[in-house]
Structures are given as C-alpha cells and as structure tokens.
Amino acid sequence: QVQLVESGGGFVQPGGSLRLSCAASGFIFSGYAMSWVRQAPGKGLEWVSGIDSGGGSTTYVDSVKGRFTISRDDAKNTLYLQMNSLKPEDTAVYYCAKDLFGDYGYGMNYWGKGTLVTVSS
Fold it and tell me: Residue 84, Cα to own-chain centre: how many angstroms?
C-alpha cells in the first residue's frame, strides 16, 4: 500500500532553515507528481509546492517563492522541501502528498501523517 513518511521538522528561529524529507513506498514514485501541503494551527490546509514526475517543473504558492525549494530523488523514492529564511507564519504541520498524475495540479490521493515545523524566537 502507499506510504508517505515525512521527517525533518522541528523548532527553528526566524531566518533559519530546515529540510523536510518524504520517504515514499508502495507505488512507482517516479511516475507521479508530488506535492507539499501545510496546515497552520487553527487554519485549513494550504498547498505549498508541487513537482512533476520528471522533476523538471516545479511550482510554489506565492508566500514561499524564493525561500522554499522542492526536489525529488527518484533513485531513493524521496521528496524534499528545502526551507530557507523561515518566518513565524511558516509554522505548520507539513504533509507530503502523492498527486493523481505525472503532472501536478489535478489533485492528490495520498498524504503522509505530517511533520511539525515551528518558527519562533
């Protein structure tokens, strides 16, 4: 069965960096787009970033453009999110999600359990 396991969250001061990882199994990882989605305390889900199956196309929500970088290593079945210049408003549980197709933007059908990122001084 599909499994997505996030790691790398933690506590960081404003301006700091974190790298999230998502280990995928149970499906042909290289054949699907992948996304990161987050949920801030008391708020709804917010899509953050997506990457297509080939890794050649990426997209970001405006609030993280220039600060976050999504990438993938198909040999390791792993998705990454490098987060730099973190702000308190980035505090959230971050979820890795498998997209429906090789291109992003058509929805997601599996999510991990999430990893908490807390940005605070």
Answer: 14
Other beta carbons less than 10 A from residue 91's beta carbon: 17
| Tokens at 117, concatenated | 């990122």
Contacts made by residues 25-31, CB under 8 angstroms, sequence distance 24+: 25/77, 26/1, 26/2, 27/2, 27/98, 29/72, 29/74, 29/77, 30/74, 31/102
Q: Rounded to whole angstroms, what are the CA distances from 51 to 30, 55, 66, 69? A: 11, 6, 15, 10
| 79-95 residue pLDDT tens | 999 999 999 999 999 99
pLDDT by residue (tens digit) across 23-65?
Answer: 999 999 999 999 999 999 999 999 999 999 988 899 999 999 9
Q: What are phi and psi of 28, to 5 degrees?
A: -80, 90
Tokens standing for residue 112: 């991990």
